[in-house]
Task: inverse folding
């Protein structure tokens, strides 16, 4: 099973449209958003996603009650941290402001996959038996590259994709 990972969309509607279209074309069943949606109006663009959407808050997410209301029926919002099991894999997701927390989660050995955002720098790495994926920023802010990631939960292989 392949899943999509996106983060730091920062209100860039055209980037969200590109990401949603790419995830729909690939046929992922789940998409994980690692924070910094920013505004409630972004929910309208995610409505066309054909996968289950999972969201954690980022440090720039503003009106969380209104975001929650607008994403009702579109996504499951976990707050600041997500811990789920999917396809036999335990997955953690956080925005990842603190790299020490990410490393501690990897070191504990409980998670097959840790999803994080915040840095806007795409990264795929392994620590012990844990795959850590930061898809970068779908918005393209700071790096000028709009990126997302795909993870195969069976093989635990990940790839970064550039949105154009």
Result:
């Amino acid at each position: 099973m392949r899943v999509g990972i996106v983060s730091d969309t920062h209100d860039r509607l055209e980037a969200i449209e590109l990401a949603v279209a790419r995830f729909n074309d690939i046929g992922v069943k789940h998409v994980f958003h690692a924070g910094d949606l920013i505004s409630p109006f972004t929910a309208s663009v995610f409505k066309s996603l054909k996968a289950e959407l999972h969201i954690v808050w980022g440090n720039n997410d503003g009106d969380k009650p209104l975001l929650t209301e607008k994403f009702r029926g579109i996504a499951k919002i976990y707050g600041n941290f997500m811990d789920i099991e999917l396809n036999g894999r335990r997955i953690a997701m956080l925005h990842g402001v603190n790299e020490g927390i990410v490393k501690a989660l990897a070191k504990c050995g409980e998670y097959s996959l840790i999803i994080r955002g915040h840095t806007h720098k795409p990264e795929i790495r392994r620590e012990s038996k844990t795959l850590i994926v930061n898809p970068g920023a779908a918005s393209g802010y700071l790096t000028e590259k709009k990126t997302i990631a795909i993870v195969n939960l069976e093989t635990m292989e990940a790839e970064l994709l550039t949105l154009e």
